[in-house]
């Protein structure tokens, strides 16, 4: 596992940072209290060090020599300092530090540690810069790479759309206003026909003197705006803030769409997504099967072994279904009932698949209070696109109750009469 290097000579500050690292850092800490110790730790662990929090002034390195050292070793460096006047800050950014933090108590150390976590996550974030100025393209790319983002570039709107189509995982764009072929407004307007603000963040950029540009950019669909020339700190704050917002929205979406107990998708997510699959199958005239699964005698599991064991059984069955049916849409519909949408499968294929799943669950007893208990489920399958999605689920449900009536631990489809 990668590590965070912390260089701090004050015992008290070191102790607070250690606490913050243990509580909230994605990495384990390596700690040094002098330049000499830093050298020996870096020599031994260089390949494992992801980033460093470095005190600007140490007894054996009073003028920031340790910062030059960690930077020369290629380690992303965040400076801890008690004296960040404008001049010091500018010099630090010119040297290539990622950020600086004034030593002002626990909050500032939390900020520094969270910033390292942010850098870690940035490695998975793809950013597209669109600017016809080679110098700005280079400058912004350099900053974004310093923050460990994956960077793509385009020099006009037409090229930008092409890059975006080829790389659909891009979630952040930085778009200049004044460009040939298609200006920034037109590009943003075009993109907003397809990408929501909550899926693709666009930060507008302009060097024009017009004070109204920022509002115009935002009214055309940009999330935020930066006026050239900007300083590194302002750029960093805007970019990080927007990326964090996007992540928070994604996290909220996950919470809305997932069932709390099993972490399977919930009923709302199922209907939102199954409807599109159903329509696609209908328009392409391809098969579309649904299944309703219900655990047998689940009440007796609760009654005999208690609710917590019932919960464990639900999680256990969910995991098996999830592992086995990853390519299909699967959700906990409520209680001990699950829905599955299987585009591309005929009734026979879907019945065979669900029956195989039934065998796996039935042959995987789980331990409850020291006793091995076999869990089974019954299922109904339906595949008839002349019915609506709701009706198809109702028929699958009716088939499920036939399976229950026929003795349970059984799968019944449209043809099994
Ligand atoms: N532990 C636990 N139990 C739940 C949860 N949701 C629903 N249940 C229980 O699931 C049981 C479902 O019971 P019934 O609808 O009678 O069905 P069954 O006992 O499975 O019987 P058949 O479906 O006829 O085989 C009820 O006792 C619910 O309280 C849950 O999240 N956790």
From TrEMBL:
One of its GO terms (cellular component) is plasma membrane. Its EC number is 2.7.7.65. It catalyses: 2 GTP = 3',3'-c-di-GMP + 2 diphosphate. Pfam families: GGDEF, Response_reg. Keywords: Phosphoprotein. The modification 4-aspartylphosphate is found at residues 55, 176. It is an enzyme of class 2 (transferase). Residues 3-118, 126-243 form the Response regulatory domain. Gene3D superfamilies: 3.30.70.270, 3.40.50.2300. The keyword Cytoplasm does not apply. InterPro entries: CheY-like_superfamily, Diguanylate_Cyclase, GGDEF_dom, Nucleotide_cyclase, Rev_trsase/Diguanyl_cyclase, Sig_transdc_resp-reg_receiver. This is diguanylate cyclase. It comes from Marinibactrum halimedae.
